[in-house]
Structures are given as structure tokens and as C-alpha cells.
Amino acid sequence: MLKGLLASVIGGRSRRDADRASVRSLLEEGAQHARAERMIDAERCFLETLRREPANPDALNLLGLLAHRRTHYDAAAAYFRDALESAGDVAEFRANLGMALEGLGRLGEAEQAYRRAIALAPDEPRYRLMLLFLLGQDGATSPEQLLAEHRRFAEALVDRVPQVSFPADRFDPERRLRVAYVSGDFRAHAIAFFIEPLLAARDRAAFEIFCYHTLRGADERTAEFRALADHWHDVSSLDDGAFAALVRAHEIDILVDLAGLTTGNRLFALARRLAPVQVSYLGYLATTGAKAIDYRITDALADPPGAADAWYVEKLVRLPRSFWCFAPLARMPAPLEREPADASPIVFGSFNRLTKVRPELLRLWGRLLAQVSGSELWVLDVPSDDAHARVVAGIAAAGVAANRVKTWNRLPPDAYWDRIRRADIALDTFPYNGGATTCECLWLGVPVVTKAGAMGFARSATSILGNVGLTELVAQSDEDYLAIAAALATDRPRLRALQRGLRDRMRASPLLDAPAFMRDLEEAYRELWRRACADQRARE
To answer: Which CATH architecture has domain 347-512?
Structure first.
């Protein structure tokens, strides 16, 4: 009897072990399908896992991630809550719930979820970065609060590593300087429009350029940038130690970080001090919070002197004109030829990422459509029926019919540019403005209406429009934004004249004067290097 009981227990344990192995195998198979973009097959594996083990938290979490990717945020939130109920308060599941809530525009609840994830896993950078990006999108966050959160992030995770010093004989103030650019965006990316002048219009006699590409993958733009650099290094496979050793071996004088806290950043390596002068530029328009980043490149329109200086850990270096220099691609189409007497319905367009479009902004746009009779709103980067329904519902709050709102999924570049140039007026997002998108719209003959905020990321379009002489399109309040857009839409002769002249305005502006821009930037680099040399002499 004892032998039979023992055999029964062993047999039951073996079956349970086999069941668990089968579930693990299904989860692994589903994850492989997901990595290969076979989402239907991935979903099948995860649902089969739940059939065998109905409360499996990993399957629930993975199904939530699939739903989030499809922008089915309600379904995603439900899956993540079920995963939390099954597994307990797991940091990853809590943070993923925050992502779904953020997608639904429930920013307060998303913030709570991210903060709980941070409390559960204080050494995981990803959750802190998710919180920082959320706060940057939330108009209720003050510059002082955003600075404090960035400082907390850096003090907890970034600033803990020791920094190195550099040999005194490196500090010759007038010698040819080694400047390094660090980015994951040496590819077909919005930032690429502004990277090209850094390489193509530089003073080769005075500056030797190194590029460190931090993300895997390359395209035609990558090849162009590689050809323009003096030295090119793909560092995507290097850990922080190996990357730091490589940069130090190259004896870089000024390291320019083009990523900040965005994808592909190497902030943890830069925290070790890889060059005597380290600068933040372009990719992240807020403070990094890191003590090892000495300066941030900007201009007086993006960061007005005075209060703005206190909102960054870095010292602000304001270029005398624009800190943007736009290099349009040759294949971008010409602005649309419009008849002066064209009386077709006015088309407003939102061409920024949908993640920048908050519910409050949709309600404001709804009021604009209600004011401008017969007008339409085109919204790009709307990837699902769920996302379309949320956009339409936000606009409909002002009593606007659903058929006046048209949405498209993310389009390839040529179709995207063609869609922009067929609109009449582009509506910028706030508090997080468009940078490359604003320049693309203007180049394609479409004026942009923006609202100026406090910090750099909320004043991108203010800087761009100021540099093309269109400050009258910069609002200071929601009501001002409505009034500017409505007045432009209802003054057809003014609108058509403005559209016809936009490309020439761009050509004549600092935004397209790459040689003058690079003189300004390289003079700034030289001044920062001279300061470093003076500081070194003072220490000797």
C-alpha cells in the first residue's frame, strides 16, 4: 500500500512537472513569435497557456503587452490588473499597468502605478524613465517638480559611479579638438534632420569628429552619416565598461550626447566622465539630472534667460540664433499649389506622435472645429480602431460630428509628407511640442500654430517659428491658441499667402543656414573647451 501511495505521489508530481514544462514551453514559443512580429501566433500561445493555467501571471502580462502594442489600452489594463491579482504586487506588472493607463490619458493613475513600481524595484532605471517621460507630457507638472524628479533619478542610479580625471597635457585651448557625438539615431529618425549639419557643415581643420552609434541596425541614413564622420564606431554591443574604455582611448575632448534619456542612451557610461567636457543636445529637451553632463545647448527662444537657467542641472549654452538646423531631404515634395480662391473646407492636421495628444488637447481641438464651420481634423499615427474611437470621442465632446475627424495609421515617409502638404494648418501638441514635425510642416507649406510653455520641450515650436519670423502663430494660453488658429482659418487670403511663402521663409532663416549655424556651434564648443583649460590651470 505504501509503495502504491508513493508511486501515485511520484506520478502526480511528474505530471505536474510536465504540465509546468509545457506551460513554460508555450510562453517561450509565444515570446519568440512576438520578437519576430508574428503577433497572432504569439497571442495563440499565450491564450493556450491560460486555457491550461487560467491565472498564469506571465501569460496575462504578455497578453497585456500585445494589447498595448495594438493600442487596445482598456484590454491591456485589464490583463495587467489580472496579472497583479494573480502574482501579487510585481514591479513589472505595475509599470505595465501604468503604460496602459497613460495610453488612456489617465495620467494621475499612471503616475501612481509608476511610483509603486519604483518603490518595488528602486534599482530598475526603466520605471524611473517611464515616470519622467510621463511627467514631461503632463501639463500639471511644474519645471521645479520635473527638475526634482530628474535629480532624484540621477542621485539614485546615475551619479553613484566615480569619475576620472584627465592628463594635464591634454588641455591646449587652441588645438584641433576631438568632438564625439553619441546617439542611437544615426538612422531614418526625426533627429537625423538635425544631425546632418553637425557632420556635413563642420570645420574639418579645427574639429575631428567621432560618431558612436548605440543601437543595432543601419539604413541609408546611417551610411550617409558614417561617410561624413572622421571616425565611426558601432557600440551597440558594448557594455558600459567597454564603451567607456573605448571613448577614453580615443581621447575625446568634447562629448555631445544626442540621446539624453531616450532610447539608446548611454547615460550610465557618461556618468563615469568620458571626456573633459560633456554636453547634452537635441534628443532630450529637459535636464538629464546627471552631474557629469556639464552643459546643454539651446537658444534664447527655447529657454529664455532668467528662470529657465534654474530648471536644469546642466549649464545652459544659448546659441545666438537657433539651436535647430534643419536639413530637409531632397525627396520631400514641393508645397501644394493652391488656388487663391480655393474655398474648400479648412483642414487642420495633427502630425505629431499620438502619445503627445492628451485628452485635454482633443477637447480644445473639438472647440476649434466647432468654431470653424465645415472644417476637418486629420490625425496621423492612430494605429487602431480603439485609438480612433478615443480621438473621435475627445473631439465629439465639443459637439462635433465624427465624420469631421479622419485618422490614419503611421504612414511611410512619402505618404506622410503628402498628407501633411494637403492640410491647411498644422496644430502643434503641448506641453510637448513637435521639433522635426514642425520643420517638416513649414517646409511643406503648412503653417503651424503652437502654444509656448516654460521649458525647452514645451517651446520647441516657439524657437522654430521665431526663427522664421512667425511669432504671431505662438499662443500663450489655450484661448489664445484657439483664437490664432481660428483667425488664420477664416482669413483665406492671409492663409494662402502664408502657405505660398513658407518654403522661402525657411530658406532665408537660420534654420537652413548650416554654415552660420555651425560657426555658432563650433564657437560655443571652443569656448567650453577654453573654460575647461582654464579650470585645469586653476587646479595645477
So the answer is: 3-Layer(aba) Sandwich (3.40)
